[in-house]
Amino acid sequence: MKVLESVVCPFCACLCDDVVVAVDEEAKRVKEVRNACVLGIKKFLAAGSAALTETAGRIRKPRVRGKETTEEEALRNAVSILKEAEKPLVYGLGNTGYNAQRIALEICRKKRGVLDISEVVCHNLFYQVLQKHLAESEGGEAKIYYATLEQIREKASLVIYWGANPFASHPRHLSKFSFYPAGMYALRGAQDRELVAVDVVETPLKKIAKTFLRVPCGEDWRVAEILRRLVSGETAGVRELAEGLDFATLSAIATKMKNAFFGVIFVGLGVLAGRNAERNISALLSLVEALNAQRCRFVLFPMKGHFNVAGAVTLLLRETGFPFSVDFSEEAHAEARRAEVRDEEDKEESEERGERVACVFKPGVALEVLERREVDAALILGADPLASLPRSVASALLKIPTVVIDPFESLTAQFATVVLPSAITGVEAEDIAYRMDFLPLRLQKIVESEFPSDAEILREIYRNL
Fold first, then answer.
1. Of 102, 108, 250, 449, which is least surrounded by CB within 10 A?
2. Is pLDDT of 116 > 50?
3. Strands (E), 118-272
4. Is residue 11 helix, strand or coil?
5. With contact defined as beta carbons under 8 Å apart, do 8 and 29 qualify?
6. H helix or E strand, kind and range, residue 419
7. Coil, strand or helix: which one is 298?
8. What is the pTM of this model?
């Protein structure tokens, strides 16, 4: 029996790095996991050859049009589909390693396709509103109020979860990074912090939060605007704006914000992907800016879900200058060139970058090209779009040949033309992942697997295109 300490858990974007794993080397499987949440433990225990006979969630054999086949045959069909495609879609990337993401990007470039990540249906608007907010900031000075999870753990005296339920999405977030752990300025952990929950429904957070505010659906912007006015001392018309809301609770939250030594708002999909999302995000950014203008140190922190979606955003920002939704097609290439010529100031820099980064940023491009039938094949990696995309878009995906690379069964894999099972990144294959605060961490290979890593599969596809 081998015991590994300080293992990084590849389940969610918390990437908890204090997991202890006991491995039965003879049986090639994980026997015991400590310090991980229930969801993380389940992923670790799904690893290893012996687990394949017991874990219904694993894809056991490669498939072509629903029939099991050899890895070579499935790979040959996958290459054929992508070779014949004039404009393929590469989608997902959130549940795979950084090195695999790099190869997927190169495949998309080579095929002049469209690349989008799972952020398109969750955090898409956050980046767009943030960009607009910074562009419109006074004096043109860009201001992002940001902190790492360690800084929040060490300093935060006020923790606010807004439209987020970490009990369901990030089970160890409260105990490892935000509310319960002892910090430099919160030596007694939860006793030295205050927890506030803001949501449209009651969640388990209500039981431990000192203050809970229920918000009408889509009205988060109104709450944020009232709080902004209260912390800024702009009281005129506030009570009228707060009609139908608990004004006493709002006033109490505003007071807590102004008195906080260091505060954080963890914002979840209840805000980022709900009704009036753009207005909600803009109002929250203005609130955080107003707090810092009043010398209240506050940060806004989006609760990213998939374990390496931050890695995909980082990769695309580095390689293309955009966080997601990039189009490398011939039409986009021509459009990018025309834009370069128009912009004389950036012309020299654009020529230096040349063909490599010639792409166009089109937020939500995956949804658009599928709905308009503009793509003729799809490579899906670390995502389940049939279960998460709008129905009209999902049905369009069913009409084109698709290649799925994933360790686990999904609705998309069940309908895919080609399915290539892969090793579990961070358990059966090593790679790099970026935590939700964009800190890169190394994922270890814990046990042997009969499957290749997703990076190896993608490398073979790229080599044969």
1. 102
2. yes
3. 158-162, 194-199, 211-214, 263-267
4. coil
5. no
6. strand 418-421
7. strand
8. 0.91
